[in-house]
């Protein structure tokens, strides 16, 4: 059962750095102040923003705006990592930071966390292209993923009006390593599918946090999602898996995801449609619904009887 909402609290964060070869990767940790945590959550960001704006966004008057603060309040240790080319991680290599590169980043990040904490199995949540990165990681390191949550994901791209529009710029994503972002671009994330799903103050705070770290981001995930789908094989995701899809999401076509869901091999799988939500679910008005769905999945008891 999900713990009732507690009085809002902000927890201290801890900065970490690790290496992926010669590349410096930035990690951010928030942990329970005392006692043994219920588990360790690894958050994986999407194509157009770094990790802390997505998962540790502070907005005045919005209780537990930070997903990391919420899950710490519920007894979890939490981590996120800036993929190469984003935020505080290195941006100097001749690389587009595609989905497979993101899987490499997650392997390097979890290598560090395992060495630092001794934790060997993670509760992994990825959103948008972060879901594809998380799935790539889970295919390659299934022993490190206790439960996998994929939000706003795309599989083949079928039924995705956003990707249909994005493909018009495919030559741009093919030839350039980075694409510019600005405040208007951040607003477009919330206005393209169903305006009104997020409060203006939250979008502004989100834009401030994103643009403080980046004025451009890598093109690799955009190109992958426009030209190289499918990028993950559901039959290789052998752990309990949750598919989360916003009611109005223009990227995550529901029929496409239902086919993906049916192919998942583990019987402890769930599909959740989130009412009143478009794409960037944690920044929307119904964000507490997102936390509830995710926490319920993380806390589902293991099966006592499996039928075998």
Automatic annotation (TrEMBL):
Superkingdom of this protein's organism: Bacteria
Every Serine aminopeptidase S33 domain range: 36-281
UniProt keyword Transferase present: no
Entry keyword annotation includes RNA-binding: no
GO molecular function: hydrolase activity
Keywords, comma-separated and alphabetical: Hydrolase
The name this protein goes by in its record: Alpha/beta hydrolase
């Amino acid at each position: 059962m999900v713990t009732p909402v507690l009085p809002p609290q902000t927890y201290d964060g801890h900065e970490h750095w690790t290496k992926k070869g010669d590349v410096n990767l930035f990690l951010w940790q928030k942990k329970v102040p005392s006692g043994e945590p219920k588990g360790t959550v690894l958050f994986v960001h999407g194509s157009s923003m770094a990790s802390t704006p997505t998962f540790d966004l502070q907005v005045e008057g919005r209780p537990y705006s930070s997903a990391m603060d919420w899950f710490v309040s519920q007894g979890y240790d939490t981590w996120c990592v800036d993929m190469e080319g984003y935020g505080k991680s290195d941006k100097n290599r001749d690389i587009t930071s595609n989905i497979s590169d993101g899987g490499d980043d997650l392997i390097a990040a979890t290598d560090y966390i395992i060495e630092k904490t001794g934790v060997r199995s993670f509760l992994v949540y990825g959103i948008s292209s972060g879901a594809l990165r998380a799935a790539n990681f889970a295919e390659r390191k299934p022993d490190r993923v206790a439960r996998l949550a994929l939000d706003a994901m795309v599989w083949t791209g079928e039924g995705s009006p956003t990707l249909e529009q994005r493909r018009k710029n495919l030559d741009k994503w093919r030839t350039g390593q980075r694409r510019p972002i600005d405040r208007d671009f951040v607003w477009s994330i919330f206005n393209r599918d169903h305006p009104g799903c997020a409060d203006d103050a939250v979008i502004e705070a989100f834009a401030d946090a994103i643009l403080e770290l980046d004025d451009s981001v890598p093109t690799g995930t955009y190109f992958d999602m426009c030209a190289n789908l499918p990028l993950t094989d559901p039959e290789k995701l052998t752990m309990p898996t949750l598919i989360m899809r916003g009611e109005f999401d223009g990227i995550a076509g529901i029929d496409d995801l239902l086919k993906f869901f049916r192919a998942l091999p583990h019987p402890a799988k769930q599909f959740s449609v989130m009412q009143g939500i478009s794409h960037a679910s944690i920044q929307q008005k119904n964000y507490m619904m997102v936390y509830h769905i995710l926490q319920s999945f993380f806390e589902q008891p293991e099966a006592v009887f499996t039928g075998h």
